[in-house]
Structure formats: structure tokens, C-alpha cells
Amino acid sequence: MNDDMPDSRGAAPDAKRRRLLKQALGTVGALGVPLIAGRGVAAEAGDNQAPNVPEWMRSQGKPILSPAYGVPSTFEKDVVRTPTDLTTTKTSSWSFTPLQALEGSITPNGLVFERHHGGVPTIDPEQHQLMLHGLVERPLIFDMAQLRRFPQVSIKRFLECSGNTLTEWEKPTGKTVQDTHGLLSCCEWTGVPLATLLREAGVKDKAKWILAEGADASALTRSIPMDKALDDALVVYAQNGEALRPEQGYPLRLILPGFEGNMQVKWLRRLEVGDAPFMTREETSKYTDLMPSGKARQFTFVMDAKSVITAPSGGQNLAGKGFYEIRGLAWSGRGRIKRVDVSVDGGRNWQQAELDGPVQPKCLTRFRLPWRWKGDSVLLQSRAVDDTGYVQPTREQLVSVRGTNYVYHLNAIQTWEVSSSGEVSNVHV
């Protein structure tokens, strides 16, 4: 059923949601603790809970500029990125976004996942330049001030490492959704369409590919198809309303909506236009997909439709029987998310979740489904469908085609098991 359509009882979407919530809540009513009359009178000193007046209302708080650049509450100190334990260095390594602790679809700048190949360079924006050369009529060099003078655009798009979920091909390994799916983030990116810069330089007829090079110690390079460059590629200098963070490519990076993260070159310093892919290290010895035959797939750029339940998810514990809202994220590198189905019985039956709108292409989409847990063991799954009709596959379906030598592009359905004690864990079914 389409979200915009009335249900079988003829109820409008808002009425349908209220009815589903009422069914889920049952006769328990609202969640919370009944107010006990007179408790405030008998309250002891230091009791900050309702209906008493908490201690933080009894004196002035901190002044403005405490600090000048705002930071999260100290009570949120555990909401941080976590490192992988699979690399031997911290400069060629990665860290994970805490998806289980985030709301909505935008990732705060300080929590966007990291993937570096030679550490984070410290770049003076006054000295940084972007060189555009090769098969162009007018080779150009832009400084940051010149780039900022071009008409700018802002778009919300997801960013996902092709290695997201790579530990889960053969057995459940990650404990939390941060471990399994945390190489995923979504920001509002601001910058200049790459097509604008290419028009400024005048692309020659033979031009089919572009080499993008970063100014980090690894000089990471990737080949970009010209049709992608002219479609929706951006050269960006800002994320979520402020300058790029150093670990996200300050002062300049490439954004290729829907493509694997390593191609969205950070610390962008050079674009060379050519007539063929450049066959760099990152697209020959790395970032290829080894098939069971021994041959490898190359240039598998697009991140296919995928979804994951973030609550309840691995490592969490349900407090008891009753109402919960199942929440998660869905995305597709090929377009918009059309539908997300949720199962509470390991994929035997599915219910359509509600999507937060407006649903944008190549952007994280939050989904929700009211659910009443009866205290028995259940298997939670989500399944995304994008507007091309592509349906997120099971792990078995992927393995039957790709085998288990594959490292990247695992977009299989994730299963969380809720035990009768309320403990949530990562399982394969």
C-alpha cells in the first residue's frame, strides 16, 4: 500500500497512524509514571524528579559563550565515533558513526564516519588550490576564494564506505549497529557543481573520464566517469552549514551522490580529464570485487538500496513488554527510497513502515513502525525498495551470486534477535 493512500478501512494517512499507535499501545495508555498527589511536599532534599523543583532551577546557569563553539552535553559523552580494530595503523584506518544514538537523517559533523588512507593533512585554505587540466580547452587553477564566487548549491546526500558491513559476510560479527553499519553518514553538502567548473575549462570531445586526486599523504586517486561528473557531482567546501571538518576533506572535497565513499576524494587538489580510466592503485589492487570464478568486478561504483533497524538494535535491552517504535534508516545510491518493510518474525511476514518525508534521492530516509512486544523471542528485519524497483536482498541471495571472497558492497537484510529477556543481538538467519 502506498503511504499516501487510504488504508483498507478508508482511513487517511494521519488517521491510519493514530489507529496503528492506538493498537500498539493497547489498553496500557501513555508511557510514563502516574503522578502521586502530595509527593512534592514530602520530597527530600536532592530529589530532582517531578513534581519537585530540580536543583538546576535554584541558581543561575552558565553564561553565553560557554563555550564559544557549542559542544554536546557532558551527559552525551559516550555518543562518539569508535575505531576499527582491523588495521595496523591509525592513519590508514576508519571509525564508525554511532547510528544507534542519532535521530532524524542528518549526521552531526563531529560524528561523520572517517576513512583515511594517509592520515588527516593540515591544509591552509589560503594556500590550497584546485588544478583542472588534461583534455580541456583552458587548463585552470582555482583558489578557494575563486571557487566560492561560483553559483553555489546545497544538497542532502548520504555517504557510505563500500566496506560498510564487510565483517558480516560469513557470520555475525559486529555487536552493535555502529559496528555493522557505522560507515554511513548523511550531510547537507554545499559547493559548486563539477559541471560548472568543466564548462569553465571547456571539455574536449574525447573526454570520457576524470582523475580526482587528494592532497593527503597517500595522494589517493580515483577515476570518475564523465557522465557522473556532468550529472550531479559537486566540489564542496561546507557540510551542515559550516566549513568541512579536517577529517572530511577541509578545505575541499568531491561529492558523488550514490557512489562508494572512497571515490568522493577528500582534500581535493587535482582533476585531470582523460579519454579512459586511469587504472590507479585504488581501482586495481583495491576496491574491486573478487567473484567465485577468480575474476574481479571493477568500477562497481553505485551503492545499492539498503536499510537497517537502529532501534531496537544490537547491544540494546528492552525494558519490558509493551509499546516500542521500531526505527531505522534506508538509502539507495540509485534514487529515492520507495518503501521499507519490517518483519518481526525473521522475514515470514512483512509490514510497511512509515517514511519521514520528503523523501530525497540518494539521501538517508528515516522509517518507523509502531510495535508491541509481547515478551517472546523475535527476529527483527527491514527491507528497502527504491524507486527503480530494486529490492534489498537477503545475505543468502548475495552469497549465492558473489560467494564470500567479496569484501565490499554487502547490502543484505540485517537481522536483530530480541531474546525473551529483552537483550538484542546480531544474528544470521
Verbal overview:
The protein has 429 residues and is α+β, with helices and mostly antiparallel strands. 12% of the residues lie in helices and 29% in strands. It is built from 7 helices and 24 strands. The chain has helices at 13-25, 39-42, 144-149, 177-181, 194-201, 226-231, 395-402, and strands spanning 82-83, 93-96, 114-116, 129-134, 140-143, 153-160, 184-193, 209-214, 221-225, 234-239, 242-243, 253-255, 268-274, 289-290, 296-297, 306-311, 322-331, 337-343, 351-352, 354-355, 365-373, 378-386, 415-418, 424-427. A hairpin with a 5-residue loop joins strand 23 (415-418) and strand 24. Mean pLDDT is 92; it is low at 1-13 and 38-43.
Uncertain parts: 1-13, 38-43
* Shape label: globular
Beta-strand percent range: 25-35%
Average residue-wise pLDDT: 92
Q: What is the C-alpha radius of gyration, as a whole number of Å?
A: 24 Å
Q: Sheet bearing the most strands, described?
A: 5 strands, mixed
The level of helicity is 10-25%
N-to-C CA distance: 27 Å
Number-wise, the strands total 24
- Please give the count of helices: 7
What are the salient characteristics of this protein?
429 residues, alpha+beta, five-stranded mixed sheet, five-stranded antiparallel sheet, globular
Produce the secondary structure layout.
Elements: H1 13-25, H2 39-42, E1 82-83, E2 93-96, E3 114-116, E4 129-134, E5 140-143, H3 144-149, E6 153-160, H4 177-181, E7 184-193, H5 194-201, E8 209-214, E9 221-225, H6 226-231, E10 234-239, E11 242-243, E12 253-255, E13 268-274, E14 289-290, E15 296-297, E16 306-311, E17 322-331, E18 337-343, E19 351-352, E20 354-355, E21 365-373, E22 378-386, H7 395-402, E23 415-418, E24 424-427
Parallel strand pairs: 4-13
Antiparallel strand pairs: 1-2, 2-3, 4-5, 6-7, 7-10, 8-9, 8-13, 10-11, 10-12, 14-15, 16-17, 17-21, 18-19, 18-22, 20-21, 22-23, 23-24
